[in-house]
């Protein structure tokens, strides 16, 4: 944890108001996002109870599942959501899914995505095709959520904690209502008061509901539903009661997510966000092409070659994201300056014709810098220019007030002399630089060193198609059938 | 799959070691697909790799060696060159495959007639042994270049994803490593990769054990680095297969002139000189990550040590303790900076030159050796020890870099903290299942308890 982070936490705690952690917005905001909130049955993530979704704050759609254990009712309710999601993912110009928190992302994108993308659309209780297609989109969205720097999926909690520091514990920040209390306290209240009030009064924003709500609303509506077996009017009344209860419970979270988007849009966008969004959209286009061709394939267990490839790609992306954020944002750079080897100060002397031997003689212009704060940088560390990205320097000598640095790269011959900072200039050199990395190539084949010994039970591709039902043409293996227990993914794609 | 290779009780360390090496050689001669050698700290791992490479060249043709860093690659080249000067495999031609940018050959090797440096593998086809870091091997085109056999050094430091390109290039492997290393990691959220059957976050060694049940595992039975009192403790606390010290107790000694011992730091140095271990203990209590009082105590210990006028006896070697042969090891980079700063300030106050001791993190000290080490205990002052701090690999690296003595600096009370902390994920160096880091910490703490000196900040 950085010194700046501790300091900001102390200031927030003392003042009772969240303080900015970042001075720029490091995520892209769509002008047409789709917000999704939801609850699942306690202990049974495969059983959604209520979901609220929509593309504007005033027009949320809602579905409820009065008997979450019954498969047909679950599908009926899910299919309305699935149809909207598929439509949005297929047509939205600037698609962006916004959820309440990380737990919701993991539930909806990973878990629901995983069990719906393998659903059978035949058999005794067939699932609607739209649900299986939505499962493919949810799985893609989960991959995006895990990709550092992607703005295709945002959660309100992560967006807020990335840009604000509260005076409470990070685990307490996971409660969106409390977190917003710190960032936008109610009139006449401190952030702490607001947060505590929110914790007492606001229902959770998912994916787990309040056990009290379960007892009071969900159970009684479920009982009413079961008692009304066969009686359409009574069942509609039971459903309406649950809808009213779900709306009451999800409305606050719904408004909080949209409020969060409003707060985020008030922060000026960092300069490298747009370029990252182009990468998002490139992946989105590829995904849409696959979806249109009925080719959304996802493995149950990724091959070793592809998991290693994704790991390395994400590691590079995370490193690049960190560098881009620091270079885009003076407040983040200030945190770097307090803890990491970096130099910040005013140039008080320049020796353009300074030479060093290693072992040959090199021209390495020397800068004498009056430091803003003492530096940890040692001789062997390469530091990169923040104002002039091409410059690479190393510290040669330093006291708490003055440092001498030499330019290693970027301004070592006459043609590049214009890059040498002049006396009086304020300069910052940090360990961060933006590296272009080639995204070429794919994972390749899994080599003998990474293939498990016996393959008694070959795992086939799970498959989702928007086109013709089934598709993979027989070879139905003995995967668990969805017919009776509906949680397990169905391994075989086709009718048997 | 239990490690094998131990001889009878009364065999000498040299005999034990030789027997293990001959066994490895016979396994390679029998074309065993995967041989994994578990090496305790200072067991002659690099010497083994060089010997095996040299002895496989006549049978297999060119032998590729995979290391993890550029320094390790250059050291391996230098070691082979030294071996030739000593008369071993005199006609050997060595290739050093390196990156296209930001690499310059070490000055002493640049002009050597039997070493070729190149960023292109095709320039090295005339050489007998090719050495490169795993990352460089990953760029070699596997359609046009294949080897029937290759050697991996530091297989426990190497992450599994880095092994994949090696698998595409080489058809059988000798993998050598120290299982008491810091586990490979990622700075990303690990959840996505941890549940996999073949996780890219495992070590290369662990992956080979998972995918190749026919892997033959051999443990080197002797540490030539650790003195006898340390070998026993480190073996017991951290290793699945026991090992012994290669040196007899009387072969190693630190002697210092008699003198008054009013100062607790001087006492700690004396205790370490006498018995190999000492614990400098500050008053207990929780402390931030950057505990400046511990940094001061570490710096004071450094100065007490370099001022103690210590003479080293190490077999036939007898000389004063050199600052460059002293290392300070910490868990975090920020602690390295804090120790540097504290040392500088104490030296300015005493109007003296800052001693040139090595100060670094456990990660960077992996594979290095010193006469005396001073260790900032990873659990000092922590109320929330996580997997990072309890990782037995990190403690093992810190406590096994010395040929003579190790002084641990910590706040009091972490023994109690440890009792309150549930054991983390199961771990035992050199075994895929087994005991945990929690137990390893207990064994070390019990040993240090009797060698403690209390200091006031």
Task: Describe what you observe in this structure.
The complex is a heterodimer of chains A (496) and B (457). By secondary structure, chain A is an alpha+beta fold. Chain A has 13 helices and 17 strands. Chain A has helices spanning 3-15, 71-91, 102-116, 129-146, 156-163, 170-173, 176-183, 191-201, 211-227, 232-265, 273-292, 304-328, 330-339, and strands spanning 19-20, 34-41, 44-54, 61-64, 97-99, 153-155, 164-165, 296-298, 343-351, 355-357, 361-363, 366-371, 383-385, 392-398, 402-409, 426-430, 462-464. Chain A starts with a helix and ends in a 32-residue tail after the last strand. The model of chain A is unreliable at 457-496 (pLDDT under 50). Chain B is built from 17 helices and 21 strands. Chain B has helices at residues 13-29, 45-60, 70-85, 107-110, 134-137, 160-169, 191-194, 204-211, 228-238, 264-275, 292-306, 333-349, 362-365, 387-390, 392-398, 414-420, 437-449; strands at residues 34-38, 63-67, 94-97, 115-118, 129-133, 150-153, 173-177, 216-219, 222-223, 244-245, 252-255, 277-282, 311-314, 317-320, 326-330, 358-361, 370-376, 402-411, 426-428, 431-436, 452-454. In chain B, the strands form five sheets. Chain B has an eight-stranded parallel β-sheet with strand order 4-3-5-2-6-7-1-8. In chain B, strand 3, helix 4 (107-110) and strand 4 (115-118) form a beta-alpha-beta unit. Chain B is globular and about 65 Å long. The A-B interface holds A 1, 146, 148, 301-302, 304-305, 307-308, 310-312, 314-315, 318, 339, 359, 376, 444-453 and B 107, 160-161, 163-168, 171, 173, 186-189, 192-193, 196-201, 207-208, 210-213, 289, 334, 337.
């Amino acid at each position: 944890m950085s010194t700046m982070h501790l300091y900001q936490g102390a200031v927030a705690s003392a003042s009772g108001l969240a303080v900015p952690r970042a001075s720029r917005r490091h995520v892209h905001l769509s002008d047409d996002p789709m917000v999704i909130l939801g609850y699942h049955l306690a202990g049974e993530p495969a059983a959604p109870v209520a979901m609220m979704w929509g593309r504007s704050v005033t027009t949320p759609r809602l579905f409820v599942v009065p008997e979450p254990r019954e498969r047909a009712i679950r599908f009926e309710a899910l299919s309305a959501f699935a149809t909207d999601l598929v439509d949005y993912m297929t047509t939205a110009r600037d698609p962006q899914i916004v959820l309440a928190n990380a737990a919701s992302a993991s539930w909806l994108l990973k878990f629901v995505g995983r069990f719906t993308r393998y659903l059978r659309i035949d058999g005794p209780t067939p699932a609607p095709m739209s649900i299986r297609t939505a499962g493919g989109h949810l799985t893609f969205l989960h991959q995006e959520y895990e990709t550092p720097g992607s703005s295709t999926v945002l959660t309100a909690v992560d967006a807020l904690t990335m840009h604000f520091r509260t005076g409470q514990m990070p685990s307490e920040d996971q409660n969106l209502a409390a977190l917003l209390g710190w960032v936008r306290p109610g009139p006449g209240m401190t952030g702490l008061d607001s947060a505590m009030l929110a914790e007492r009064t606001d229902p959770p924003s998912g994916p787990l509901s309040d056990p009290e709500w379960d007892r009071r609303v969900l159970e009684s509506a479920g009982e009413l539903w079961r008692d009304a077996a066969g009686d359409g009017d009574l069942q509609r009344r039971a459903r309406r009661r649950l809808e009213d209860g779900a709306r009451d419970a999800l409305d606050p979270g719904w408004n909080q997510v949209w409020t969060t988007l409003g707060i985020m849009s008030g922060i000026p966008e960092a300069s490298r966000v747009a370029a990252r969004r182009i990468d998002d959209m490139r992946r989105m286009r590829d995904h849409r092409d696959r979806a249109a061709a009925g080719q959304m394939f996802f493995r149950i267990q990724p091959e070793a070659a592809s998991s290693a490839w994704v790991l390395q790609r994400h590691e590079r992306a995370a490193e690049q994201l960190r560098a881009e954020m620091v270079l885009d944002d003076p407040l983040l750079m200030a945190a770097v300056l307090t803890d990491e080897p970096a130099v910040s100060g005013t140039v008080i002397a320049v020796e353009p014709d300074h030479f060093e031997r290693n072992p040959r003689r090199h021209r390495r212009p020397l800068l004498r810098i009056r430091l803003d704060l003492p530096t940890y940088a040692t001789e062997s560390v390469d530091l990169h220019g923040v104002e002039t990205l091409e410059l690479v320097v190393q510290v040669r000598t330093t006291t708490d007030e003055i440092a001498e640095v030499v330019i290693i790269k970027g301004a070592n011959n006459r043609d590049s002399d214009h890059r040498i900072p002049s006396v009086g200039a304020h300069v910052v050199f940090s360990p961060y630089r933006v590296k272009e990395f080639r995204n070429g190539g794919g994972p390749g084949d899994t080599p003998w060193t990474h293939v498990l010994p016996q393959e008694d039970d070959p795992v086939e591709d799970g498959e989702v198609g928007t086109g013709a039902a089934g598709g993979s043409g027989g070879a139905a293996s003995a995967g668990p059938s969805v017919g009776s227990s509906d949680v397990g993914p169905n391994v075989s794609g086709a009718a048997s | 799959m239990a490690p094998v290779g131990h001889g009878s009780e009364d065999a000498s360390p040299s005999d034990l070691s030789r027997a293990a090496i001959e066994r490895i050689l016979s396994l390679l001669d029998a074309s065993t697909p995967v041989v994994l050698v578990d090496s305790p700290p200072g067991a002659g791992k690099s010497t083994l790799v060089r010997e095996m490479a040299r002895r496989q060249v006549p049978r297999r043709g060119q032998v590729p060696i995979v290391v993890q860093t550029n320094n390790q690659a250059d050291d391996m080249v230098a070691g082979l060159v030294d071996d030739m000067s000593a008369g071993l495999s005199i006609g050997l031609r060595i290739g050093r495959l390196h990156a296209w940018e930001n690499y310059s050959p070490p000055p002493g090797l640049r002009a050597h007639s039997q070493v070729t440096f190149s960023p292109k593998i095709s320039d090295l086809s005339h050489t007998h042994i090719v050495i490169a870091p795993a990352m460089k091997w990953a760029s070699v085109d596997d359609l046009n270049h294949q080897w029937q056999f290759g050697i991996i050094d530091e297989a426990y430091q190497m992450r599994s994803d880095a092994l994949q390109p090696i698998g595409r290039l080489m058809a059988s492997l000798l993998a050598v490593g120290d299982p008491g290393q810091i586990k490979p990691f990622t700075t990303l959220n690990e959840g996505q990769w941890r549940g996999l059957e073949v996780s890219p976050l495992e070590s290369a060694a662990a992956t080979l054990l998972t995918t190749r049940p026919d892997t033959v595992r051999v443990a080197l039975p002797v540490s030539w680095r650790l003195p006898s009192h340390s070998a026993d403790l480190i073996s017991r606390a951290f290793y699945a297969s026991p090992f012994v010290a290669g040196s007899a107790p009387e072969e190693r000694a630190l002697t210092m002139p008699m003198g008054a011992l009013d100062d607790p730091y001087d006492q700690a140095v004396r205790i370490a000189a006498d018995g190999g271990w000492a614990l400098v203990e500050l008053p207990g209590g929780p402390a931030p990550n950057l505990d400046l009082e511990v940094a001061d105590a570490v710096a004071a210990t450094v100065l007490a040590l370099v001022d103690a006028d210590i003479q080293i006896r190490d077999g036939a070697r007898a000389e004063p303790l050199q600052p460059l042969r002293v290392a300070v090891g910490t868990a975090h980079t920020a602690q390295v900076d804090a120790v540097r700063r504290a040392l500088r300030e104490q030296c300015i106050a005493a109007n003296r030159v800052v001693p040139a001791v090595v100060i670094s993190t456990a990660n960077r000290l992996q594979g290095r050796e010193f006469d005396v080490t001073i260790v900032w205990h990873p659990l000092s002052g922590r109320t929330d020890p996580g997997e990072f701090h309890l990782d037995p690999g990190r403690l093992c690296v810190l406590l096994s870099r010395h040929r003579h003595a190790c002084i641990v600096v910590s706040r009091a009370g972490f023994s109690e903290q440890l009792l309150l902390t549930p054991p983390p994920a199961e771990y035992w160096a050199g075994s895929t299942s087994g005991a945990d880091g929690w137990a390893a910490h207990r064994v070390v703490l019990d040993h240090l308890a009797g060698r403690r000196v209390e200091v006031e900040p």
